[in-house]
Design a protein that fits this description.
heterotrimer, A alpha/beta, B mainly alpha, C mainly alpha, A: alpha/beta, Rossmann fold, 2 domains, 4-stranded antiparallel sheet, globular, C: mainly alpha, MetI-like fold, two-stranded antiparallel sheet, 72% helix, 2% strand, transport (chain B)
């Protein structure tokens, strides 16, 4: 049994205009020490998925169905009190913007010590020693003085190092990192990513990395999920998906990478934009933007318009698309033509 | 990889008709939320009702309270109709001078509203001009105006109004002051409260100033006065709109406070505040209605404005200057 | 810290200079003090002599110089009405006002923080909606009217005969809503205790405290709802912030999230607004003291205006100016202590 197992997670927002389904049928697993990437455009539900694991989606969001099992614990049916003992202790989080994540009026030391003391019965002195040790691990210069400093006295990169140190404070099993480098300067993004990766490997910590950067995902993670409009549409080994994407959306994403463009030509893009969650198209949510369907005869296939696609195995991935078989057939024919 | 052609909308054939002001209002979020918010509807109805009734008071009031012949000591301190001993001529009873309370409240509401609106118009004129200047010109003008506004605000607008009122009254003499009390109060409250507008306008001007449309206007060589009033000001309107409601309520309360302290409307031409003041002397003798009925009218008036302001703030959600 | 204090001192001197010029200009223009002092019957020659003796015939600048020099030494002139140094008159009235304001601030702090925090944490709860409804009404009732209503209910008493007296429940309801009205509402009472010098306190005896109840509630009545709404709005904004979400993700207790992470950030703008509102408190104190005939500075000021007692008016303005400067400095100091991003140099880092 996997360390973390999410099955058919269904998360909704109860708004005045009616319920909005932010996540539908999201299922995935994470093994101990494994690194999983979740990719998708903004609004696809990546961050919400991450927050929902620890039931941190604020009102009016609520989990309407499905289960989240972590090391034998049913996280979604746990009391707030019991869940609190998992948060920050066995599963910790790294937020996107380090400038906003640390509380501006509390010292770094206080924000580290309070986390330790919330989960362990130790003296402040002992907690400070642990905090100091972790600060050294994230390679912060002169860590002793940092403990008494306030967030505004540190740079963005430095703050994200501190947040990584806080994430590691209690030697967690899983770290969920929500776009951990997006808000940083390009020059230090790689540095922070390498540090995070390194520490996860060292301590055998599982990592769920949420990002829209396919480049980072391909370098860092072993497996990945692609999300679109609140749904997982493709999942499998990162290597396989990057090399041979099955879903037209994933293909589009990879095609849109700058390195895929021909020099001198315009960059490729997926036309249209993500539909609003409160107003999803029928059938496959991607069909209005799907190139494959349009190419066939200019009209979407009836199945794509009418039915929500089920997951099918395709090669080494699982993909939710009606057209997978047809696309593979196309490709096989093309290959035959060439040979 | 070929990009599929996106069908262009036939934009050349039909030019979109520019919607009229009324149509834009009807389609706006403001109107949508107003239709759903019953409190806002009720408050607007009460407010408009009070304004109409107050300004039509010479037509509606049973008697003319400014007419000195109405004073009848024999009929003084009569209770309102639901209490024993009431006189059917006076529905809400009479005050200590025997004037019909209903009539005098109607006239008093008119005075209060007149001063409230007048003072807010003056504040807005001063505050918007100074706020625009401070925000747009910056530098010394900004420092000077804002320092002045800070000092005035830290003394609180009511305090400034009381001191100015007291000094003006003492220098000009009570009789003269009473004669021009409405103008005096508009001037005093207007001068005391302009910093609120100035700070709000300045804050939004500072936010707007760095946007590209201002740069564009400057590049086109427009004069700064034109940029300020035609380009920047319209974009600061929603916070101005929101604080205006609060300021009207504040001005009415300030006027009532000044009148209550004897620095406002004289008892011969009372506002709601001076009615409360004159009735307060008789509260110990059991004639509570002379002070509490005008008080209730004042509270309903101010409350409906405040609730409207709350609703507006929620709908327009401007970033208001805090403090 | 020292730089901060020097900066504040410069600011204070500037403010006091402006106030003193204004105050003196008022003094110069306000009525004829000689008239106030001697009345109609004294012949003109004697009045002229008195004017000369008081220095009222000197040029404006000479008079201001003399005024400022005396003021710095604590001499604000002699009250025409009391015929004693204006500062002594103020010193006699100051404790009453300070105690009243202190009691009101106590009420405001004790109630606004818990109610504001509660209605921010549970915005949809019935109790929160009730608090919000009451607070908007509270803001809409002027202080003097609240004071009058309090007097009517608790000091004069009301007799309700709305329900049928013949039935048991009717008379019970009538009794329930009627009040006896035995709370004192006039002055400071007879049982004041001398603490030191001029300072007589209301806080030491039961009778004194009773006299303090209604005025302090009235004075707090408009500021309390203002602060409840402010704390609620700020707290709700802070609760949406990333750092509060992050604090929850760290697994610390909700109590700590609310009262350490959220409340501390909430209080920053509240402290700033609180500093500004001190001036409003002084203004409202004038109104409250008038209604309750509370013998404090506000009532004294109003009487001084009616008697054209210029030295007293001027010294009141000067003393109020000093109070503002001192309290604003304290507020800034407190703000600097709570907010680590401010390095008490006057400007945020």
């Amino acid at each position: 049994m996997a360390l973390l197992e999410v099955t058919n997670l269904d998360l909704r927002f109860g708004l005045r205009q009616g319920e909005v389904r932010a996540l539908r049928d999201v299922s995935f697993t994470l093994e101990r020490g494994e690194r999983l990437g979740i990719v998708g455009e903004s609004g696809a539900g990546k961050s919400v998925a991450a927050f929902s694991l620890l039931n941190l989606v604020g009102k009016p969001g609520f989990i309407a169905g499905g289960s989240i099992t972590f090391d034998g614990l049913e996280l979604n049916s746990m009391s707030e009190h019991a869940l609190r003992k998992v948060r920050g202790n066995r599963i910790s989080m790294i937020f996107q913007d380090p400038m906003m994540t640390l509380n501006p009026v509390l010292s770094i030391g206080e924000q580290m010590v309070e986390c330790l003391k919330a989960h362990r019965r130790i003296s402040s002195k002992k907690a400070r020693a642990i905090a100091l040790d972790k600060l050294q691990q994230v390679q912060i210069p002169s860590p002793e003085t940092r403990l008494d400093q306030y967030p505004h006295e540190l740079s963005g990169g430095m703050r994200q190092r501190i947040i990584i140190a806080i994430a590691l404070l209690l030697d967690p099993d899983i770290i969920i990192a929500d776009e951990p480098t997006t808000a940083l300067d390009v020059t230090i993004q790689a540095e922070i990513m390498a540090l995070l990766l390194d520490l996860c490997e060292q301590h055998n910590v599982g990592l769920i990395l949420i990002t829209h950067d396919l480049g980072v995902v391909s370098q860092v993670t072993q497996r990945m999920l692609v999300m679109y409009a609140g749904r997982v549409i493709e999942q499998g080994l990162t290597r396989e998906i990057i090399n041979d994407p099955q879903h037209p959306y994933t293909q589009g994403l990879i095609n849109a990478l700058p390195q895929m463009a021909t020099p001198g030509e315009r960059l490729n893009q997926i036309r249209g934009s993500m539909p609003s969650l409160s107003n999803l198209p029928n059938g496959c949510a991607f069909h209005p933007r799907c190139d494959f369907i349009n190419k066939a005869n200019g009209e979407p296939r009836p199945a794509c318009v009418q039915e929500v696609p089920e997951f099918v195995d395709s090669g080494n991935c699982r993909v939710a698309c009606h057209m997978v078989a047809e696309m593979q057939e196309d490709r096989r024919l093309k290959l035959e033509e060439i040979s | 990889m070929t990009t599929p052609t996106v069908t262009q909308s036939n934009s050349q054939t039909t030019r979109p008709r520019i919607p009229s002001r009324w149509e834009r209002l009807r389609d706006s979020y403001l109107w949508y939320s107003f239709k759903r918010d019953h409190t806002a509807q009720l408050c607007l109805a009460i407010f408009i009702g009070l304004v109409i009734v107050a300004f039509a008071s010479p037509l509606l009031a049973p008697t003319d309270p400014y007419d000195l012949r109405q004073i009848d000591i024999m009929a003084s301190e009569l209770p309102p109709f639901w209490i024993e001993g009431a006189d059917e001529r006076f529905i809400l009873g009479t005050d200590a001078q025997g004037r019909d309370l209903l009539s005098i409240i109607l006239y008093g509401t008119r005075v209060s509203l007149l001063i409230g609106f007048g003072a807010v118009i003056l504040q807005a004129l001063l505050g918007i001009t100074f706020g625009l200047m401070a925000g747009y010109l910056g530098g010394r003008v900004d420092a000077l105006l804002m320092r002045l506004a800070d000092i005035q605000l830290s003394f609180s607008t009511l305090m400034v109004a009381i001191v100015v009122g007291a000094v003006v009254k003492a220098t000009m003499g009570g009789a003269f002051y009473s004669e021009y009390a409405i103008i005096m109060l508009i001037l005093i409250i207007g001068l005391a409260e302009w910093p609120q507008y100035a700070r709000t306008v300045r804050a939004s001007v500072l936010a707007e100033k760095n946007k590209e449309y201002v740069d564009a206007a400057r590049v086109m060589g427009l004069r700064s006065k034109r940029i300020m009033f035609r380009h920047v000001l319209p974009n600061t309107l929603s916070p101005i709109f929101v604080i205006s409601t609060v300021q009207i309520a504040n001005a009415i309360i300030s006027e009532a406070a000044l009148s209550f302290l004897g620095l406002g409307m004289p008892e011969t031409h009372p506002s709601l505040g001076s009615l409360i003041k004159s009735g307060f002397d008789y509260i110990q003798s059991g004639s509570w209605w002379i002070t509490l009925i005008p008080g209730a009218v004042l509270v309903i008036l101010v409350l409906s404005i405040n609730l409207l302001g709350d609703w507006l703030r929620d709908v327009m959600n401007p970033r208001l200057y805090k403090g | 810290m020292i730089a901060f204090l020097i900066k504040r001192l410069m600011h204070a001197i500037l403010v006091m200079f402006i106030i003193s010029v204004l105050a003196f200009a008022i003094q110069d223009n306000l009525g004829d003090p000689v008239q106030q002092m001697v009345g109609q019957s004294v012949p003109e020659s004697e009045r002229e002599a008195l004017r000369e003796r008081l220095g009222l015939n000197d040029p404006f600048l000479v008079q201001y110089g003399r005024f400022a020099l005396n003021a710095v030494q604590g001499d604000f002139g002699t009250s025409y009405f009391y015929r004693e140094p204006a500062l002594d008159v103020i010193a006699r009235h100051l404790p009453a006002t300070l105690e009243l304001v202190f009691a009101s601030m106590l009420i405001i702090v004790l109630f606004s923080v818990p109610i504001g925090v509660y209605s921010a944490i549970k915005p949809r709860a019935m109790l929160s909606r009730f608090f919000m409804g009451v607070s908007i009404v509270g803001i809409s009732v002027p202080v003097f009217l609240t004071a009058i209503i309090l007097i009517q209910i608790f000091s004069i008493g009301i007799t309700i005969t709305l329900f049928p007296e013949s039935t048991g429940w009717g008379s019970w309801l009538n009794d329930f809503f009627s009040t006896e009205g035995n709370m004192p509402s006039f002055g400071r009472g007879y049982d004041l205790v001398q603490v030191f010098g001029h300072w007589e306190t209301n806080l030491a005896t039961w009778n004194g405290l009773q006299h303090l109840v209604l005025p302090s509630i009235a004075l707090a009545s408009i500021m309390l709802p203002l602060f409840i709404r402010l704390i609620r709005a700020e707290m709700m904004e802070v609760m949406q912030s990333d750092y509060v979400k992050y604090a929850r993700a760290k697994g610390i207790s909700m109590r700590r999230v609310y009262f350490v992470h959220a409340l501390k950030n909430t209080m920053l703008p509240v402290i700033t607004v609180g500093g500004v509102q001190i001036g409003t408190m002084v203004a409202y104190a004038i109104l409250t003291e008038t209604v309750f005939q509370w013998p404090g500075m506000g009532l004294m000021f109003l009487d001084a205006i009616n008697r054209a007692d210029t030295p007293l008016i001027v010294s009141y303005l000067m003393i109020v100016g000093v109070i503002f400067v001192v309290t604003n400095t304290i507020v800034d100091l407190v703000y600097g202590l709570v907010n680590p991003t401010v390095k008490l140099t006057g400007k945020p880092a």
